[in-house]
Amino acid sequence: MRNIIRYIFLIGIICLSCSENHRIDFDSEIWKNWVETESTMSLRWDMRKDLLKKHKLINLNEREIIELLGEPEQRYSNTYQYNLGVARHGIDYGTLTIEFENEKVIDFKISRG
Prior knowledge:
Elements: H1 2-18, H2 28-32, H3 43-54, H4 62-69, E1 74-75, E2 79-86, E3 93-101, E4 104-112
Antiparallel strand pairs: 1-2, 2-3, 3-4
């Protein structure tokens, strides 16, 4: 019986460690000054849900996005891309892609891969 309880406890710990419980409150200054190191490689990934919960990105203009998130790592004609770091799913990296039309955000997407 003790082995069964230990086994169930171990399975529970493994399930909890694999869950998406790594949330950090979004902080614009920390986001903008983020440098990927071994200890901070998932920092932006962990902030992403709080960012989207607290800030409605749709209809913000380019200046407002840069004030909030800083300069993007990649900039295309109508798209900004921000590196989110390790996505806590194996070796996947996350990316926040923001699409503009007439200098306003019309869409955004978080991807990992």
